[in-house]
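User: Can you help me understand a structure? I only have the sequence.
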Amino acid sequence: MKKIVLAYSGGLDTSVCIPWLKQRYGGEIIAFLADLGQEEELEGLKERALAIGASKVFLEDLREEFARDFVFPMLRANAHYEGSYLLGTSIARPLIARKQIEIAAQEGADAVAHGATGKGNDQVRFELTYLALNPEIEIIAPWREWEFKSRRALIDYAAKEKIPITATREKPYSSDRNLFHISFEGGILEDPWVEPPKDMFVLTRSPQEAPDKETDIEIEYREGNPVALNGEQLLPSELLSKLNGIGGENGIGRVDLVENRFVGMKSRGVYETPGGTILHIAHRAVESLTMDREVLHLRDSLIPKYSELIYYGFWFSPERELLQATIDESQKNVTGTVRLRLYKGNCQVIGRRSDRALYHPGLATFEEDKVYNQKDAEGFIRLNALRLMLRKITDKGNK
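Assistant: Let's start by predicting it. Here is the structure, written out as tokens:
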């Protein structure tokens, strides 16, 4: 191999990948580091990659593209996997992999590589994207080839080779951070009975340590997308970043779950998604006011499949694109403002309004009105009961 483009994060796995790939395959190792909102975690990573053997490092700021073209379309669909996982890691992989393919073409590389394990979902997400965008590309997955059998073995190797890493034997769990969330898995978290360490969390305070005072915010939506926070128009990445700060301060967005991986096993993951949690709740509130009942119910029936496609790595698939077009059509009237109250881990809707509201106070009121004839409900009920009545009548006749 003359050139290999590695998806580099600076973590344990990809730090070991650079010298291992160089020794195993030779040639140049080009490290691609995607800035998806890791903030201080990015400091010094470019220099570190060069020091341990990378011939070149691409560091690209993808925060706005990530929020606008990946996170927001997913939020328009109210996507969540198995009830509670908001797909923060899943949605980042197709963007990283797409940029890898672009860099590989630009640099004339022979192959792309990633640090995902042979047991996880990320290997599927990376490689489905690679092959969807360039069916001829060579793919290298070190975890499926090298002699190391555990992350502890990687830690020992890194110590031996003097590779700087942040993982330790005392804290061997891995984490993945971006503008939408941070995830934790592995190590001490592999026992689903063990409570996560209190000092593990990064984006959120515990609800017990959150302020004793309520925080009220307003989010404005336009065609299914949040566009302003407390009256201030913001770019998608800016809005999400500010909500992360507000939500994290109030203990919003912690999730601890056991999920079903695509490869077939169950795994335990702990997630912090403060801004994303707020946006899910806010979006639902605006939809409740503006979406037609049957359109809403039909869209909701698509959420499990849409979410599964993202989790499994099929972002660049015709079926995901078809579902996205349908979902986006449903969002054309989802415009309005929602008011929320944050308090010690809770996010409560306390108001919503819209110029496109289908809510009609004259129809909904329990007070006297001149719009709705309550007598009409009798025929409506009897027509809907007709098949039920016929079944009972038929049963009696056959006895």
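Now, to help you interpret it: The chain has twelve helices and 14 strands. Residues 36 and 62 are 6 Å apart (CA to CA). Let me know which part you'd like to focus on.
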